[in-house]
Amino acid sequence: MTSPTGPADVRRRNLSLVLRHIAAHGPCARTEVADATGLVHGSITALTAELIGSGLVHEVGLASSGARGRPRRLLELAPGRVLTIAIQVKKSQLLCAATDLGGAILWRDERPHHAEYGDPRPVVRAITEIVDDAWNAIRRSQARERGHLARVVVAVPGAVVEDEVVADSILLGWRRVDLRGLLRAQDPTVTCPISVVNEANMAAFAEYGALVDRTGEVPKVFAYLRVLRTGIGGGLVVDGAVQTGGHGMAGEFGHIPVSFDGPACKCGDHGCLVTYLGVPALLVAAGMDPDDYDPDLQDGHAEFDRRLRGGDPATIRALETGARALATALTAVSRVADPEKVVLGGHLAAWSGHLVPNVLRHLAGRRAVTPTDEPEISTDLLGEDATLLGALRYGCETVFDDPTSVPQVESVERPAVLP
Description:
By secondary structure, this protein is α/β, with parallel strands linked by helices. The protein has helices spanning about 5-25, 30-35, 40-55, 120-140, 180-185, 200-215, 275, 280-285, 300-310, 315-335, 345-350, 350-360, 365-370, 385-400; strands at about 30, 55-65, 70-75, 80-90, 95-100, 105-110, 150-155, 160, 165-170, 175, 195-200, 220-230, 230-240, 240-245, 340-345, 375-380. The strands form four sheets. A five-stranded mixed β-sheet has the order 6-5-4-7-11, sandwiched between helices. A hairpin with a 2-residue loop joins strand 12 (about 220-230) and strand 13. It comes from Actinospica acidithermotolerans.
């Protein structure tokens, strides 16, 4: 969060501090919140009253203050008041889930979008329908008449520029698509904020959060790389925030050139990491023809995996070559971004038993000279759910950053922003 510049910013920052503490440590008393945040007790009283008024926090009982003194009223995050809906756009289907600020998954579904390559309109219609279905299903099952939909987050496979326009998606055939504008035009009643984000960045954000939750460590710079079917994606998280770069291309590790004389890449360059470690490249290197398999190469990946487990020499050599390319790419990432942690996801996680030892072997010379400069390499925790969970977490974080975005309960006359 940036430094506050005026009274309104100070108020937002302080509300955020209080809400985050209650979410992480509740049930807790106001005195505990004051001690943890450094805010004076009078401010805590006013801030918690505002959070209670917006339905973000509620009182859940009393705790003894000791032999003397009044019992302390305990506060905790109110379940179900604020919701986030996330949609992951894939080549032929949508994945959708909804959560509250506590992280509980309240609804989940997937369905085809039937879009032709290059045409975003069926995707837009399908997103509008699935968001409406999610909201209505939650209202029916949870009786959330006073619920507030804080944000819809749409994660797409492709570069997303600063104004959240999909600059380019090879998988979908989109170029300069204002997805948010199309969604607004499709259903003007959707008035809540809509975020359009890169799907690999959301996976990185989720894996970063899972690492922090599991270990308590908070890396300043965190890198995530994954191989899924035909491509390599990834993301960078710095100081807890996803970095997208000036053109939406930060974290595109698959297109780091590891050999300028290497194979031609679809991006127009040569020798990119994906031309050595992408599934099509691995199949070719192992003596397999990608055209013999389904377009998404699921069967090809399964056959490569079977041969690898069986000890096929050509398959092992192909992955060793990919490991050397990965070591070169990680060296470049380390020298530019200097991540403390690198997490390998997707197929990279499945093959980590072969990949990581070979990567470390190629990095051994540099590690011997500067052992503390190299990142720790591990595998993902969340698997295929990473993108959707990251998008949900991203939506919730916008509320934690600015609790004033949630209206006071008494001012909500109808269930939040969707019909």
